[in-house]
Amino acid sequence: MRREADERLTRKAITSKLIKMAGPSAIENLFDQLRSVNDEDFKIYLTKVHHTLESNDKGQGHLTSLRHLYSLIFCTKFERRKLPKELVTRLKRLLIEPNQGSGRIRIACNTVLCEYCPTESLVIDSMNTLPDDKQIPYILPVVNNQGRNIGQLEKLFIPQLVRWISTVGFDYEIQTRSLSCLANAVMLHQSILDKEQMHIVSSQLADWLRNASVHQAQNPFSRKVFKGEEGSLVTDIDGTASRDIFTILSIGHYYSGDQLLNIHSFSMLKSWLISSHPSAIPLDKASLETSESYSSGFSTRARGVLKEKSCEYCLRIIDQCERKPMKAQDGHLQHACLVEVLSILDILCQQDNTLIARLFPTIKRVYLQIADNMDYPRVHLALIQFFLNHGESLWYLVKTSYYFHITGDTVMYDPQQAYETFFTKLLSLHYLEESAAFDIIMFLQDNLAVLSLQTNIIEKYFPNLLRILAWNSRTFLSDFVDILPSMVSATTAIEVFHTLVDLPCMSAALEVMCKAERFESTAPSRTGGDIAVIPGSSLEAYLTPRHRPLFHFLTRMEGGHGDTIDRLSTLHQLLDDMKQHPRVTVCSQGVPVLLNLYFQTLLQYADIDLVCKLVPVIIERSGQIYGLPFYQQSIRRVLADNILAMFKLYPSLIILLRSDIIDFICVLRNVNDREDFFIHLVWLIGEYCSSVYDERCTPEIISKYYEALETLSYEISADTSDTVHYTVRLLTVLMSAMAKLASRCQDLISRVLLCLSKISQQQQKYNRSEEKDKLALISRANELVNLLKLPNIASSILSPAADIDSGKWHTDHNTSVPMLLRTTTNIIQQFNL
Amino acid sequence: MVYAFLIHTVQPGTCRVIYSTTFGQEAIELDRVETIISTGSTDTQGLAVSQARSSPIGHELRTVRKEQLQIVAKQVQSEFSFRRAVSGRSYEDEMQILGSDETALPFEKGVLRLRAGDPFVEERIVVWEASVNCAFALVCSRHENRIQAETVLTTVIRYLQEYVRVISQPTEAMTKADKVTTILHQFLPNGQILFMNHRLLKQLEKGMELLMSGK
Prior knowledge:
The complex is a heterodimer.
Chain A: H1 2-22, H2 24-35, H3 39-54, H4 60-74, H5 85-96, H6 103-116, H7 136-146, H8 153-166, H9 172-188, H10 195-210, H11 257-276, H12 285-290, H13 301-321, H14 328-351, H15 355-370, H16 377-399, H17 402-407, H18 416-430, H19 434-446, H20 448-454, H21 457-460, H22 462-471, H23 473-487, H24 493-501, H25 503-518, H26 538-542, H27 548-554, H28 568-574, H29 582-605, H30 608-621, H31 629-649, H32 653-656, H33 658-666, H34 675-688, H35 699-718, H36 728-744, H37 749-765, H38 771-788, H39 791-798, H40 808-811, H41 817-832
Chain B: E1 2-9, E2 17-22, H1 30-40, H2 45-54, H3 57-87, H4 91-100, E3 108-114, E4 124-131, E5 134-141, H5 146-164, H6 172-175, H7 177-187, H8 198-212
Antiparallel strand pairs in B: 1-2, 1-5, 3-4, 4-5
Helix pairs in contact in B: 1-2, 1-3, 5-7, 7-8
């Protein structure tokens, strides 16, 4: 017991010590300490550093000084601590000159200079006259960090790097470093190499890719001349003797310089191809004809050779990827390599589309091999990218029999199956992995136009795609802002709407399903179960066979249902315990943004028939929203705002959907929790139920609407219960709506006057609302009553012509609204007197 | 290619970059410099802009670089806080694991996309891993092989733990930055993601041991 207690205490002590060392306070203290050094002390310190660096001790003293110097210049952001030019020159000498200390000192010096760069006080003019080549790997990062503006990257160093690369038998360490340095420079500054330099490097890359030695190298760290494996052939990744060219998947005990150059060349190949080679023109008859003289058809032979060698290398890697690795960790490398070579082949085909026919059988073979393997989503993605990029060209090739001529194969592969497998099974298996999900989103972003215009992938599989968002809203919300419009079409609009409103539920359901999987209890354990009884927790609900289909519906892979389920409220209840989960909360914060975007898209493209179908759904869903209070509020606000926009676009909706609207406003209960939405509908009736907007708006329809509003206002003003409190706004909008209807159908005027005066009386009678609210209501009722007593004026004010916004009403002196308003005010004041 | 590597804190509060390096100087138009500085900073922005105007270009470019990397760090910190919240694991839980068995330390991993112009000129992808109070991030070009970038990052973190004990003593990344540079010098030469099989990894590891020992 005592021993256990001791152990516990020790563990606690260790943890608290770790918290001290690893926690934010340790870092803050260090920053405070370093930043508190004032200019004076810093200058004194720099003198000391200079002194130390000038001394003969090239060991620990140098290292400590350089480390401290680095910390002092690293810790500031805006107020850079300046180093005197003499010290910078000393640091440069330390980096460049021989006999200045070990590699560690040079790296420490390199760290300081890279942090201090770019700076005008450091001038490295040329590496031509370096006393010792061994320093070059430490100098290159500084040169790179000095950049194009300050350093002389373009004028001096690029030609130098190209020269080193093209010098046969030069130090391989410098060549590999130069390669990576060059690759970086080309990526950052696209036009930094001229054509000739491009071709020199391309041809060198082709040479290193093709001609690396297939013999194992000597142990570079041993002084013994002969030992063990050296001289023997490298093996393939599965341990068998290699019979082909050397690649990154060839295994040797040690690698020689040319083999390391081969590895470096492949590692930078893709970025080199992208940065240095233009894309091809679209495939046509002419390009097919010229492809017969493949190598001679290119502007330079170097480019052609690099393409040829790259193809050969990639095909060799594909072969090697089919072998089982001796070491498990190389399996991961195979995966990465396969994705890389598929991507390189894709780029090569984009740059020279005559390669498509030659390479396609291999691509098809790779796909057929992994088609049923669900472990490598990113390989599938690379294949799909290839199909998508070259599908059209392939179709052309088959049509012209060129494909058969090159491959002897008559069977084309239809990629539909690949798309389906990926966007259903694979996606639902891998959406949890951040990197796979990220790649899928990148794929969608990169191909958004093609996917939307040439395929139905985004529309068809939108529920599965939204699963990624539901799981990781924080990361992918901005991407879905780009993708969402492609999901909305006439057939999917309503289903997408439901799915978006229920997105936090999807998030909750996914979390529950994951939890169930963690507890290894995915199989429904409860048999039967009463449907009316809500289980104690969402996890329990998921394990209940009766409720599980609801979860499956939420997390379905394909769209096409067109609608949602009947038991939505049950589902919301089942997931009630998940509403505080951070994943669900974050997801629910993103939905209003997406929903607004959804409506924007819809209003841009939808016709009246679609909107007509959607409005009843919106009305229904305004009352069925997952039980997060802030979520319900924000969604209802979005719905209310957008329903206004829809009616503004298509005012005829008020006629077409009259029964739905009347049914809704007749039920007083609907006001509860969604008064704002309710008020908007009432306002819409008053605003758009007019023959000005639709000739089909007869007095009968206006009367029907009026009757519904009248009943509602009597109910509200007579409601004396304390449980529900209706706002003044609701009653005011109601009164205005009724007055507007009466101004268009004069038979109603007497009823409205009666109704308004009754409301006024009721307000005076009951003591429910605040005094100022009561006064506002009574005053509004009086205004409307007075206005309706002059029907012609009332109709001008309450039902102005639809073109009121056109400006005519403001410019025409005799009919302008200000004039009417002035007249009305005078009349009302007179009546009041 | 990798444009930058950084180590920074992830605990709630000020996000501190404790090590950063870039493998080149972005081609940046100088009129964008002030925009990046002024949008990225908070209380010191007035000072920064006025200083930047009167300073040489090198000074301005360095400030921009620092600010860009700070923006990356903040985004990773925000992602990490979300991950930790949904995983239900706390800082203290991770500390306990760190105290008992360092190798079992759980890492949150992720990938982020930085759109062109925000904060870098070109679009970039950030591959990151984080645990306890330390995040490690590679800022890659958009075409980089992300599977291999993840592997390289994990390898670098493994050596950082071995040589700098960066997670339990993050301040070491600042006070012994040359060790971090040595690891990157070997496994991320000039920002190149290398395809390394197990034998090449061993060979590079031996080279690094030699450098670390000062031979």
